[in-house]
Amino acid sequence: MQALAAKVGLDEVSADRDSQLSCFREYLKQSNAWISRYHRLGGGGLRVVHCRSIAMDILISRLHRLACQRVIEEQGGLCTEASILAIGGYGRSELCPFSDIDIMFLYPEKVRSAKFPDMQRIFNDTILYMLWDLNLKVGHSTRTLREAIAEADQDEQSKNAMLESRLICGDSGLYRKFAKAYDRFIRKDDVLAYLRERLEDQLKRRDRNGNSVFIQEPDIKNGVGGLRDYQNILWMARLQYDGRDLQALVDLGLIRPNERHELHKAYDFLLRVRTELHLQCGRGCDLLDFEKQPRVAQALGYHEEAVFARVERFMRDYYRAASKIFHLAEYLEQRLSINAKTSISFQSVIASRRIGKTERFDGFTVQANILYAET
Fold first, then answer.
1. Which residue in 265, 319, 353, 361 has its CB near the most CB atoms, within 10 A?
2. CA–CA separation, 163 vs 183, rounded Å?
């Protein structure tokens, strides 16, 4: 992506706004074409969304550089440090073709310089307005360290989004201060209450989506066994044990290495399906309806001549992946003993992994009173 940025001239873009807009549009056009081609050639779901995130990081970093140059030219220098953070799905480095670009402008507390409002204006004009002019769907906020934590304390969606924050560009020291302060905040917070809320949200969302993996027109993101089930696993583990990825769950003894592999593979497949669905629709879309299933299946390599056979094999793979995510999500929820009447301890989680033996029969596994289909 850096080579592509150099090829289209992002590093030498002129001060003229029209020239800048033309250059950035060409960069987006070529990067999107390259990533879509990589996807269609069989690139893994996670690798493709990571590539798209890298492409966006480069774009925003170049815009930030232009903004800093304008501030220096007009004010003689930056009056304070500033950082631009990716949050939410972008913070996870998981951008599908028409995903929201969620960013946060982070500033320190009590900036006393009279030049600060003008610096903010230049940043917004150079970065945010350009992203809008490029027809990107941008979610944005501007906060100080204290304001960011106060927002997370009041709003669960913001809290989840900031759990997955990362620095795109700007002052790394300021971001480290934020990351440390945010970790202290979530450690002091009522973790049990948060976990209960996560479980309640899971149950309500699953109820809205039919309480079954085997919906004929599934919602890839919010459906049972969808992307959100996977993400909730990591949110809950982060709050309880500071487990930031699947390997951390293995290290904690919450899942086994083979379960980690299965979960990763299933999530990767769903991201691949979601990328293709976005490309087919030309917009953000998560509903895999009857009309789209044949085209998505064909693009993902299911080439049976008979449409019914093609869709049947594709949806069988989809249900297998969603079932893996759903069953492991339920399993972890049970092991964590998350409900309104119980407390959670690390010792009880480890002990729960040792309760009961695994039994196998007729293609099924029974463990801790949970029935799994073997594949």
1. 319
2. 9
Q: Report the distance separating Cα 304 and Cα 326, nearest Å.
A: 28
Cα–Cα distance between 277 and 227 in angstroms, integer? 14
State the pLDDT at residue 58. 96
How many Å apart are CA 333 and CA 6, to the nearest integer? 47
**Predicted TM-score of the model (pTM):** 0.86
Query: Of the candidates 183, 152, 77, which has an alpha carbon nearest to the alpha carbon of residue 122?
Result: 77
Residue listed under structure tokens 């960013």: 103
Give tens-digit pLDDT for 295-326.
999 999 999 999 999 999 999 999 999 999 99
The separation between CA 326 and the C-alpha centre of its own chain, rounded to angstroms, equals: 18
Length of the chain: 375
- Angle, alpha carbons 350-351-354 (nearest 5°): 100
Q: Tell me, what's the pLDDT at 200?
A: 85
Q: Where are the alpha helices (DSSP H) in the chain?
A: 2-7, 17-40, 45-75, 88-91, 116-123, 129-133, 145-154, 156-163, 172-188, 191-208, 227-241, 246-251, 257-281, 293-299, 307-336, 346-352
Structure tokens at 367: 């463990």
CB 102 within 8 A of CB 137: no
User: Alpha helices, DSSP H only, in 41-107?
Assistant: 45-75, 88-91
Structure tokens at 30: 């070529």
The Cα–Cα gap between 28 and 59 comes to: 8
Pair type for strands 138-144 and 101-107: parallel
CA atoms within 13 A on the CB side of 86: 23
H or E element in which residue 144 lies: strand 138-144
| pLDDT (tens digit per residue) in 245-255 | 888 888 888 88
**Contact of 374 with 364, CB cutoff 8 Å:** yes
Q: In angstroms, rounded to a whole number, what is the distance separating the alpha carbons of residues 284 and 239?
A: 29
SS3 state at 140? strand
Q: What is the pLDDT of residue 8?
A: 61
Pairwise CA distance, residues 254 & 257, whole Å: 10
